[in-house]
């Protein structure tokens, strides 16, 4: 079964960063949004593979998004 994890993207000081709240330590940064997103995908996949290889459980996601209409 494929799991999906929430990734929070931020833009500050001219670069992009991202992190996965449900996977502590999974962070990425890049000069462009696309570079950061590609890197983040690799980071999450690698993190999950390492958890499995070490015999650890892959955490279930607990974060979710809420979409609010524009005021």
Write the layout of secondary structure elements.
Blueprint: E1 8-12, E2 15-19, E3 27-30, H1 33-53
Can you tell me about this structure?
The N and C termini lie far apart (38 Å). A hairpin with a 7-residue loop joins strand 2 and strand 3 (27-30). It is built from one helix and three strands; from the N terminus they run βββα. A three-stranded antiparallel sheet has the order 1-2-3, covered by helices on one side. Helix content is 30%, strand content 20%. With 71 residues, the chain is an alpha+beta fold. The protein is flat and about 40 Å long. It has one helix at 33-53, and strands spanning 8-12, 15-19, 27-30.
Summarize the structure.
With 71 residues, this protein is of the alpha+beta class. It is 30% helix and 20% strand. The protein contains one helix and three strands; from the N terminus they run βββα.
Features:
single chain; 71 residues; alpha+beta; 3-stranded antiparallel sheet; 1 helix; 3 strands
